[in-house]
Specification:
This protein is of the alpha/beta class. Helices cover 47% and strands 20% of the residues. Helix 6 packs across helix 10 and helix 6 crosses helix 12. The longest helix has 22 residues.
Length: 315
């Protein structure tokens, strides 16, 4: 069965998902608001990098939702966290009562914003831990792969079979994907990784490998991780590691080495004069900490520095 997918946020990640699905014969419509989307309209979409070179000479690409018609089986949401609520509302006219919305996004709070619009019975979470970037308008490059995509229902209300069908589509398209009955735990595992590296890489304008080479920065990352564990405990979130020390060993020994050359998405946003997703990452940990009376000084400081840099650059 071929499904219809609506990609809301045709940036690097959305282009990779949508483009590879389209190569398998699925009906895919891309919605975006930048030069990359306009280049897709003119010249098609090229995907390159770790998963090979693929060229789609014609794609259904829409600058905003003007001209978009019909309804879709699934919406793949890959916009920045601060756009989630608005973009889901924009997609509502193109959904049926059974259309599922998949959050392919970074950070915390996206699932809640989606569920507010369509309900938990149609909200699907994803843990995406491969990286992509726009090499030039019309070209998306897969830059790093750390682990398979995981899909799951945060509330347990979405039938597993419906998620499994999309999981199969992703795998057939060449995107390694599995099902998770503990998608919240999986997302918080990515939060541990992202909060440790993303903002620090942006602040210092360095690839991830440099962060692991400086003892003082290793201690800073250790502090970020310990605070996340404390907040997760207070929220009742089960993490897939026995302790902060256990995760730190895994992080420094297994996760960091394959991504030493990667430049953080937050750094790329800053270079383009955009707002970052700090409020959904370290900022969310700091916010939860305040609500739960858990001390998070390292995450608060990192958040404040990023906010200061955004203000200086006029993001």
């Amino acid at each position: 069965m071929k499904r219809r997918y609506l990609v809301m946020g045709a940036g690097a990640l959305g282009s990779v998902f949508g483009g590879l699905l389209a190569r398998q014969g699925h009906g895919v419509a891309f919605v975006g608001l930048d030069e990359h989307l306009l280049a897709m309209q003119r010249e098609g979409l090229t995907i390159t990098g770790l998963w090979g070179d693929h060229f789609l000479p014609e794609v259904s690409a829409f600058y905003g939702t003007e001209g978009l018609t019909g309804t879709f089986d699934a919406v793949l949401l890959s916009v920045k966290s601060y756009h989630t609520a608005r973009v889901v509302r924009q997609a509502l006219p193109f959904m049926r009562e059974d259309t599922l919305v998949f959050s392919l996004q970074n950070g915390l709070g996206n699932w809640e914003a989606i569920a507010e619009a369509v309900g938990w019975s149609r909200t699907v979470g994803a843990r995406v831990i491969f990286g992509a970037e726009i090499q030039k308008p019309g070209v998306a490059r897969v830059t790093v792969y750390a682990d398979e995509v995981l899909l799951g229902s945060p509330s347990g209300e979405v039938p597993e079979g419906r998620i499994a069908a999309v999981c199969d589509d992703f795998n057939e398209a060449g995107i390694p994907t599995g099902l998770s009955a503990r998608i919240e735990s999986a997302l918080w595992g990515k939060i541990l990784y992202n909060c440790s590296l993303n903002a620090l890489g942006a602040i210092l304008n360095v690839p991830y490998g440099h962060l692991g080479e400086v003892p003082e920065l290793r201690e800073t990352m250790r502090g970020i991780i310990e605070e996340i564990f404390a907040v997760a405990r207070a929220k009742g979130v089960t993490l897939g590691y026995s302790s902060a020390a256990d995760y730190c060993r895994f992080f420094f020994d297994r996760q960091l080495p394959p991504t030493v050359t990667h430049r953080s998405s937050m750094l790329q946003d800053m270079e383009k004069g955009r707002l970052t997703e700090i409020d959904a990452l370290n900022g969310a940990i700091a916010r939860y900490g305040r609500e739960l009376s858990v001390s998070t000084p390292v995450n608060e400081t990192v958040t404040a520095i990023i906010k200061g840099m955004e203000a200086k650059r006029g993001a």
